[in-house]
Amino acid sequence: MKHQLDFEKPIADLQHKLEELKKHPETHSLGISFEEEVSLIEKKIEETRRQIFLNLSAWDRIKIARHPKRPFTLDYIDLAFTGFSELHGDRLFAEDRAIVGGFATIGTHKVMVIGTQKGRDTKENILRNFGSAHPEGYRKALRLMKLADKFGLPIITIIDTAGAYPGIGAEERHIAEAIAVNLREMMLLEVPVIAVVIGEGGSGGALGIGVADRVLILENAYYSVISPEGCAAILWKDRAAASKAAEALKITARQLVELKLVDEVIPEPLGGAHVDKNAAAHSFQTVVLQHLETLKALSPRERMKKRYEKFRAFGHFTEKITTEAPAKA
Description:
Strand 2 (99-106) and strand 3 (109-116) form a beta hairpin. The longest helix has 20 residues, at 34-53. It contains 14 helices and 8 strands. 46% of the residues lie in helices and 15% in strands. It has 2 domains: 6-50, no CATH class; 62-312, 2-enoyl-CoA Hydratase, Chain A, domain 1.
């Protein structure tokens, strides 16, 4: 199995056994027909796959979110949208290919779609800067959002980034300011805004296009203020503790829904979105359209009010106060 994840080894072993049996049918067990043995192994593969993928740890889901074959933003644009016409440049400094965007249609709705894009190989990753945008990327995104707002087009943002680019050039061109301006301006957009986390949702790099009326997340994606490796390096002084950090951060889709930080989990095919890109794109399209219809029914004033209240409600916590018994004399 190419690009096999460590927890998928039992599935790979069974698939290898099945392939060997089909190549050499004379090796099948005595007392049982060849077809029966093949059927039994296939059932075992399905049962094993279901058992594994219904009991994944947070760290396992992060591995799926980073899978090299997982569909990226342009894959979803190709499969879930039609008529995509890409727009380029921030009109201030340069074109950042880590963020793509343009006019498109989803269902019967004309929209502006914007997202972070990773690369499949070394050459494309260099072109896309591994999906980590520079300041000009966020300024391009904001330019397209304001264009959509001007013409009354809903905005769909697609998030898949480990974080904004932290290099010297990005700092010189004010990456923090670019993201902060996007946070402010997205809150003031009058058109419906939907953000979808399809893979990695890393820190401010994700939030820079993530202020939305609805924040959705794919089943095996994650959304976090810091990567598990970064958290582990700070708290445990060892990046090897990333799996422990992943559990502590509560960054998986189901946990984020429970914390009310995202609005809905978009289901993926068993095994992850990379197993069946068309099915993943269909789920993406179906859920996005449901929310888009709901949001379009609201007035701009209502949408903005609810968007503001949504983000103001983040960050609640409870505190347990214990009363210590007075010390005995």
